[in-house]
Write a structure and sequence with these properties.
It contains four helices and 20 strands. It has 340 residues and is an alpha+beta fold. It has two domains: 7-83, no CATH class; 122-339, YVTN repeat-like/Quinoprotein amine dehydrogenase (Methylamine Dehydrogenase, Chain H). A six-stranded mixed sheet has the order 5-6-7-8-13-12. A four-stranded antiparallel sheet has the order 1-2-3-4, with no helix packed on it. Strands 9-10-11-14 form a four-stranded antiparallel sheet. Strand 3 and strand 4 form a beta hairpin. The longest helix is centred in the first third of the chain and has 29 residues, at 2-30. The protein is elongated and about 85 Å long. It starts with a helix and ends with a strand. InterPro entries: WD-EF-hand_domain, WD40/YVTN_repeat-like_dom_sf, WD40_repeat_dom_sf. Keywords: Repeat. This is WDR64 protein.
């Protein structure tokens, strides 16, 4: 508690230092500033910051912070920047017990297990915080689950057809890994101890699937909803329950590693929201909305309720020249950032 009070006091003094410096730089740019004993140059800024925070700050971070204020006093940097959040390769990694007084930085852990073979690439990577593991999917069909807690990994190779995997996600209620290829939806039961028949395939899908995402809701019912986007601008809504794995499976083909499900046996609402490829889709639980983006210049980005996929009401969208290739949502800042 005492350390926290000391830090708050130091932070308040640091804010005052930055405010004085901004006022000084603003006056300098307008020609109204006259030098006096209170002038804050780099040496004074460096010494004061080191006195306030001690070894928790590094020279390069102080220098970068000072440079930002000098170059643009109107856009002052945030105070966490003075500490630096990540350990670089040049930093001393030999003492993991060393802690910053502001940020506890964990060391990076490298996964040495090879999940893809030569000429294969990772097409999807999903973190599952509640279960402490990560799911990856490679282009040529290797699905892998890495556990953080017990250092194990499960791998599963999908080689039913020549179609490449386009993306993956995790179904939190049914506990399945979902992935999409050009013409199929793959559901992998990673918990199954059987080397064969531990997966389901829904096919055929009429258009080429390009992305997939799970709708996360707090109700914890024994069902999951999957969002998918294709190369014709359609967004699909597929809801699955445990009963579907029993009732809708067809006979597995000879020497097949999967049980098949006919896509015609499912009610899969879809709606054309874009006039080009749907390159990314995501359910943003904080907003209770789904978002999809496309290379379409007119209907580039859509953000709306998933109910819009089952009706014809207008959707909230905006246009970006040459479309949107990627997006993310920041809950703290309440902004969506897009990349075209």
């Amino acid at each position: 508690a005492l350390e926290l009070i000391d830090f708050k006091n130091a932070l308040e003094q640091f804010h005052n230092l930055v405010e004085k410096m901004i006022i000084q730089k603003t006056k300098e740019s307008s020609g109204l500033y006259t030098k006096d004993d209170d002038e804050i140059d780099y040496e004074k800024f460096y010494t004061t910051t080191q006195t306030l925070f001690g070894p928790a700050v590094k020279d390069q971070n102080i220098q970068a912070f000072f440079r930002k204020i000098v170059s643009n006093p109107d856009e002052k940097p945030e105070w966490p920047e003075i500490f630096g959040c990540f350990l670089g390769e040049s930093d001393d990694m030999s003492s993991p017990s060393k802690e910053s007084m502001v940020f506890l930085v964990s060391e990076k852990q490298q996964i040495t297990h090879s999940v893809v073979k030569r000429k294969d690439v990772i097409k999807g990577i999903v973190k599952v915080p509640l279960l402490h593991f990560t799911v990856t999917a490679s282009q040529k069909g290797v699905l892998t689950v890495f556990s953080k807690q017990s250092s194990f990994s499960y791998s599963f190779c999908f080689h039913q057809d020549t179609a490449w995997i386009a993306g993956c996600d995790f179904l939190p209620n049914l506990k399945y890994v979902v992935a999409v290829t050009e013409s199929t939806v793959i559901l992998w039961d990673y918990k199954s101890k059987e080397s064969q028949n531990n997966g389901f395939v829904i096919k055929p899908m009429k258009n080429c699937l390009l992305c997939v995402s799970t709708v996360t809701t707090p109700d914890h019912l024994a069902k999951d909803t999957i969002l998918m986007g294709d190369d014709k601008g359609y967004v699909y809504l597929l809801t699955m329950t445990n009963d579907d794995f029993i009732m809708k499976q067809s006979k597995a083909e000879k020497e097949s590693q999967f049980k098949f499900m006919d896509s015609e046996s499912f009610n899969i609402p879809k709606r054309k929201l874009h006039d080009d490829w749907v390159v990314k889709i995501k359910y943003i639980s904080a907003l209770k909305r789904f978002a999809s983006c496309s290379t379409d210049s007119i209907n580039s980005f859509v953000l709306d309720d998933i109910k819009r996929l089952e009706d014809n009401l207008p959707v909230k969208e905006f246009s970006v020249p040459k479309g949107v290739n990627a997006f993310t949502y920041c809950g703290k800042a309440k902004v969506i950032v897009t990349g075209g």
